[in-house]
Amino acid sequence: MKLVVAIIKPFKLDDVREALSELGVQGLTVTEVKGFGRQKGHTELYRGAEYVVNFLPKIKIEVAIETGMVNQVTEAIRRAARTGKIGDGKIFVLTLEETVRIRTGETGEGAL
Question: Exposed, middle or buried, 87 (CB in 10 Å: 0-12/13-18/19+)?
């Protein structure tokens, strides 16, 4: 089992969700986060005053999947989240040691 974590631009969330649904991914967790990478924030103007935004709003998506789906899921996220501009995000793939469904007590891939 794998945990795929993707950090993407907020306006790409619906595109990524649809792409994952088409693959049969049944659940995901979405968190609003802030961060920066190579773009290192930007400068904005508010009521004539200039200020620096160091941490940009992003969306973190977490999806627990069977190991055999890793390439399909990462490619679907990459295609759906890509704008071609700096700040598109990253995808991380982690190994899951165990999964337990709280309601039934199922473990392993059956709990996904």
Answer: middle
Distance of alpha carbon 20 from alpha carbon 105, whole angstroms: 26
Q: pLDDT grade, residue 64 (50/70/90)?
A: very high
Token readout for 5 is: 């974590």
pLDDT of residue 51: 65
Go through the domains of the chain in sequence order and give each one's CATH number.
Answer: 2-111 (3.30.70.120)
What does the alpha-carbon distance between residue 31 and residue 15 come to, in Å, rounded to a whole number?
16
Q: Which two tokens stand for residue 62?
A: 């977490």
Give this prediction's pTM.
0.86
Bridge partners (DSSP) listed for residue 90: 7
